[in-house]
Amino acid sequence: MLTRRVIPCLDVDAGRVVKGVSFIDIRDAGDPAELAAFYNDEGADELIFLDITASSDARNTMVDVVEKVSSEVFIPLTVGGGIRSVDDMRKMLEAGADKVSVNSAAVANPKLIEDCSKEFGAQCVVLAMDVKRVENSAQSQIEGYGNVPAEAMWQVYTHGGRRATALDAIKWARQATELGAGELLVTSMDADGQKTGYDNELLSVISDTVTVPVIASGGAGELEHFYDALTEGKSNAVLAASLFHFGELRVSEVKSYLSERGIPMREV
């Protein structure tokens, strides 16, 4: 059986790791290179670095920060934020990333997924999805995108959660993997930072829809939440940020807990 992964996430803004609640109320969490080194030593299975304002600020990902982070880790590193082209992805891989995450630019131009997958392989392409539950089933008009389907339960957002789209999350997950995305990073904006648990219904539906690994993001608050995301949510990996950054839980603690409950884990 494939081992499951525990992944700390570095949300970076202006060169610092930050964390908020439901994508707002942002506070400083430390230096990205120092945190990367810490998590590498803690036994994290992978590390994700997201430049959370690159798309909204219409700029490229901070290559110098990525280089510093990659020099501190000997585990797989995924980098995202502001990736708009095959060349942008190449720069991130050359800076030390093992995988590159796309989000806003892929929504605007789905062919970006296909182009990057053909150039570097599906294993290098991660689709990040920032998702909110649809409050009612009636169609709503999203400026610049059209109507949200009446049957949609979850809606895709872009630009660091700042812009709503008319995309149904489940259909987008299926389309993206068909285009060549080798992994999905699924963040529930409703659960993000709330510490009440992952959106396991969302994760389970997406996991049943696609054949690629799904990373659960948004909502971890206690040890049981990680277990539930891997069992009820059928995820392949669990991601957390503030819990780890502010010392409420340690990566090694989470991995021990999961291993004791029969979840196959890489030994620390």
By secondary-structure content and strand pairing, the structural class works out as alpha/beta
| SSE string | EEEHEHEHEHHEEEEEHEHEHEHH
Q: In CATH, what is the class?
A: Alpha Beta
Structure summary, number of beta strands:
14
Amino-to-carboxy terminus distance: 18 Å
Output the strand order for the largest sheet.
Answer: 1-4-5-6-7-12-13-14
Please give the count of helices.
10
Let me know the CATH homologous superfamily.
Aldolase class I
List unreliable stretches of 5+ residues. none
How would you sum up the major sheet? 8 strands, parallel, barrel
- Taken as a percent bin, the fraction of beta residues is 25-35%
Which geometry do the CA atoms define?
A: globular
User: How many domains is the backbone divided into?
Assistant: 1
Rounded mean pLDDT score: 88
Under the CATH scheme, the architecture is Alpha-Beta Barrel
